[in-house]
């Protein structure tokens, strides 16, 4: 395992492209859901289930992909995951009914999960502390272009052809990333000689209280973000009566906010530890969500510009939370970094699915349920981090 060299810009770009696989697979086909439902002679609701199945399959892929990567190496795990992803995508392209789509979306997601966990693990193999956080932030800036562009790409493809061409695009993207990584990804984790079971690897992570504090910090930040993603269509287009044309641009402002916060995070890491910046991001989320909750609770007719501004600040704070929480977590596990990354991702996606479901369950046509859940998530992360890390030794951050 080579821990003396540092990841090159080209490698960081490729790892960002690998990580972008998930937002592309989730967001690119959203504009095509009505067309898919009509073509497959099913309901829009049944077609939307394919999104939930992808999230579940992605979590499963990460759970198994992390220990697999730590044992067999990053190249083997990345190649295997991308192969499964492409096979699942091919299956979706030729599906003739919704049940086949469901099946192959799960296959696609499992492959994506196995592949994507390697991105942060490779960064951890090649760097530490502040350097690791900076590289993860740089990777995140590039990766965040995916959710910004994916719906626009999907809409453009729909104007050219049908929904199946969107999955042809995903297939070509997956193959292109796989070929590039085959030639450019070094093996940063040598095959383990000892046969440590998956359960033992996860036990090492779950028994580490300080690491769990960082994991839950990211977990509930992601839950707050997924609450926004789930609730924003009904809040923007329903409550505020924003058109379907304007909505993607309002949504995109949040992604731009995260990208700017990531750039700020990279600069601040020259002066502050990742743990301090993580706390700053959590404090910003608590403050903005509290102001937003009080505003929509007290004011009878909230102003769109103020709600949008506060939501942008809340989501932008993710730029200070995710990369610093990830780098702080994997710092404890030099030989199990992919397992720790897998746990970060799978718990985060599970919490996001739960918060999104709560937004839908409690939805009353107003912004209040979405904002209330966002505020609760912003509180739970730092509270659990404080409780779990009380009296524990923090990671020794290197310059």
Automatic annotation (TrEMBL):
Keyword Signal included in the entry's annotation: no
Keywords: Cell inner membrane, Cell membrane, Membrane, Transmembrane, Transmembrane helix, Transport
Signal sequence range: none
CDD domains: MFS_MdfA_MDR_like
Pfam families found in the cross-reference section: MFS_1
Recorded topology in the membrane: Multi-pass membrane protein
SUPFAM superfamilies, A to Z: MFS general substrate transporter
GO cellular component terms attached to this protein's record: plasma membrane
Subcellular localization, as worded in the UniProt entry: Cell inner membrane; Cell membrane
Gene Ontology biological process terms, A to Z: xenobiotic detoxification by transmembrane export across the plasma membrane
InterPro entries referenced in this protein's UniProt entry, alphabetically: Efflux_drug-R_Bcr/CmlA (IPR004812), MFS (IPR011701), MFS_dom (IPR020846), MFS_trans_sf (IPR036259), Sugar_transporter_CS (IPR005829)
Transmembrane segments: 49-69, 76-96, 102-123, 135-160, 166-185, 206-226, 246-264, 276-298, 304-326, 338-362, 368-388
MF-aspect GO terms: xenobiotic transmembrane transporter activity
Domain of life: Bacteria
Residue span, Major facilitator superfamily (MFS) profile domain: 11-393
Family, as annotated: Belongs to the major facilitator superfamily. Bcr/CmlA family.
Protein's UniProt name: Bcr/CflA family efflux transporter
């Amino acid at each position: 395992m080579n821990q003396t060299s540092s990841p090159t810009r080209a490698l960081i770009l490729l790892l960002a492209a690998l990580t972008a696989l998930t937002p592309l697979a989730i967001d690119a086909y959203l504009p095509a859901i009505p067309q898919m439902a009509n073509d497959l002679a099913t309901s829009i609701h049944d077609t939307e289930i394919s999104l939930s199945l992808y999230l579940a399959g992605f979590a499963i892929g990460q759970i198994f992909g992390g220990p697999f990567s730590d044992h067999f190496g990053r190249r083997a795990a990345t190649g295997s995951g991308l192969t499964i992803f492409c096979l699942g995508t091919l299956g979706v392209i030729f599906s003739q009914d919704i049940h086949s789509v469901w099946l192959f979306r799960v296959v696609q997601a499992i492959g994506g999960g196995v592949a994507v966990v390697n991105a942060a693990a490779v960064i951890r193999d090649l760097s530490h502390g502040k350097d690791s956080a900076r590289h993860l932030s740089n990777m995140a800036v590039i990766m965040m272009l995916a959710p910004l562009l994916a719906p626009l790409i999907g809409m453009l493809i729909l104007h050219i052809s049908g929904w199946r061409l969107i999955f042809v695009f995903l297939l070509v993207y997956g193959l292109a990333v796989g070929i590039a990584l085959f030639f450019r990804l070094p093996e940063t984790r040598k095959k383990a000689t000892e046969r440590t079971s998956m359960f033992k690897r996860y036990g090492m992570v779950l028994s580490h209280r300080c690491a769990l504090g960082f994991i839950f910090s990211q977990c509930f930040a992601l839950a707050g973000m997924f609450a926004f993603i789930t609730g924003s269509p009904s809040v923007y287009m329903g409550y505020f009566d924003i058109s379907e044309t304007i909505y993607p641009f309002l949504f995109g402002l949040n992604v731009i906010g995260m990208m700017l916060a990531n750039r700020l995070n990279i600069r601040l890491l020259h002066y502050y530890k990742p743990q301090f910046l993580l706390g700053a991001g959590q404090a910003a989320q608590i403050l903005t969500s509290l102001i937003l909750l009080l505003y929509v609770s007290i004011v009878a007719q909230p102003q769109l510009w103020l709600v949008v501004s506060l939501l942008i600040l809340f989501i932008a704070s993710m730029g200070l939370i995710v990369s610093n929480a990830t780098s702080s977590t994997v710092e404890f596990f030099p030989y199990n970094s992919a397992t720790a990354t897998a746990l970060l991702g799978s718990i985060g996606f599970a919490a996001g699915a739960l918060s999104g479901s709560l937004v839908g369950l409690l939805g009353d046509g107003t912004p209040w349920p979405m904002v209330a859940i966002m505020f609760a998530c912003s509180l739970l992360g730092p509270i659990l981090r404080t409780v779990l890390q009380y009296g524990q030794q923090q990671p020794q951050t290197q310059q």
